[in-house]
Amino acid sequence: MNTIKELSIYPIAICFGLLFIFSSCEKEEVAFNIVSNDAQYMRKAYTEKGYTEVEVSPIVKTSCYFAQWDKTIMTPVSGLFEYYDSDNYWVASIDFGDGTCDEWATKTWDVNMFPDFPSGSEDFSVFDYFGNK
Questions:
Q1: In this structure, which of 4, 34, 96, 99 has its CB flanked by the most CB atoms within 10 Å?
Q2: For residue 35, what pLDDT is reported?
């Protein structure tokens, strides 16, 4: 009777072992997605602080190929937004570029208004990344 119990355990153990081996050996690469955010979070942050957004030139998007990701992405390549305080003084701007296909935009600000950030400008990515790179 013990022999029958032992014999029925071996096939179950072998099945679990094979299942573990096959499921752990071959992993499918997880895809990731890149989308343009048009600096919406940054733009929203300025307007939520009470600054007025002025569209100096609209955002122009084009399909750009990025070799590092082997992807073509709709990318903002130009456009300019400026921000003014309630007294109509310039506070900051967001510049999407000169038409070049890249992932960068530049924010520039009045260092007198934001003394904690003395550089006065910074480049930032206009993309959001989802999934694993």
A1: 96
A2: 79
pLDDT per residue as tens digits for the range 18-64: 555 555 554 444 456 777 787 888 899 999 999 999 999 999 999 99
Going through the chain in order, the beta strands assigned E by DSSP cover 32-36, 52-66, 71-84, 90-98, 104-109, 121-125, 127-131
29 CB neighbour count, 10 Å cutoff: 6
Q: Which two tokens stand for residue 111?
A: 């260092």
Task: Identify whether the C-beta of residue 119 lies closer than 8 Å to the C-beta of residue 25.
Answer: no
Q: Where are the domains of the chain?
A: 32-131
How far apart, in Å, are the Cα atoms of 73 and each of 21, 29, 102, 129?
Answer: 38, 20, 10, 12
Which tokens is 42 given?
Answer: 């940054």
